[in-house]
């Protein structure tokens, strides 16, 4: 066996002894270690991050209140128009908690509902078909964590992208659960999700009650708001602030593009005229 091959074999068998001395473990790039499996768990255990992470910047008062609610309450509901940063704040918060090992997993749920005309049967496995619906979520997580760490967390099932089909009987513990576009979940589906809460679990619902792609009567978002806001204030059932927070975003909170405010206002006026 050549000296080069023997050295490679020793590095694989004894990674700690042969770890390169010139690696900056405060700014490790996970992509560099995709072909050396022993590094990935070691990097995660030492809380190594892929890049310098800046604190979350809140562009509106509603975003700051939303983040405060997430941090303080077990259940947080953010409701409002597109482009207000609901998904961004929730996923960025969860990514930071996972990277800092304050939780064990992030679970992301998104309804498998097509906006507009159906595309028909998609090719691939059930997982390959489902993942297409989570592209916006993956983009946010990749921006916060980096490509390599995101791939690692998904492979290790630290980040799970799910439909609700197989969760009955499950308990969500030591995790943050994000239910995105929850206006397109039915009442029964949201009831199923909200009753999975276990120890050290935070659950975040975000949605836009003006963009419902299923029957408006069936939408679980308005139902869950009524339960927590109306029935929650009656003497029979009292939800405390550390249990439930509800944050309402408005068109003034849109940060994606200033023009969206005008577009949504024009649509609203047009609907009123009809």
Outline the structure in words.
- The structure is a single chain.
- The protein has 274 residues and is an alpha/beta fold.
- It has a single domain (61-273), classed as 3-Layer(aba) Sandwich (Rossmann fold).
- 38% of the residues lie in helices and 11% in strands.
- It has ten helices and six strands; from the N terminus they run αααβαβαααββαβαβα.
- It has helices at residues 3-13, 39-45, 61-72, 86-99, 126-131, 135-145, 147-155, 187-194, 220-230, 258-273; strands at 75-79, 105-109, 159-162, 175-179, 201-207, 244-248.
- It has a six-stranded parallel sheet, with helices on both faces.
- α4 (86-99) crosses α6, α6 packs across α7 (147-155) and α8 packs across α9 (220-230).
- The radius of gyration is 22 Å and the shape is globular.
- The N and C termini lie far apart (82 Å).
In angstroms, what is the radius of gyration? 22 Å
Given the C-alpha coordinates, what overall shape results?
Answer: globular
Largest sheet features: 6 strands, parallel
Helical fraction equals 25-40%
For the biggest β-sheet, the strand order reads: 3-2-4-5-1-6
- The succession of helices and strands, N to C, reads HHHEHEHHHEEHEHEH
How much of the sequence lies in strands comes to 5-15%
- Poorly predicted regions: 4-50
What gap, in angstroms, lies between the N and C termini?
Answer: 82 Å
The third-level CATH topology is Rossmann fold
At the first level of CATH, what is the class? Alpha Beta
- Report the average pLDDT across residues: 78
What is the CATH architecture term?
Answer: 3-Layer(aba) Sandwich
- Per CATH, the superfamily is P-loop containing nucleotide triphosphate hydrolases
**What's the number of extended β-strand segments?**
6
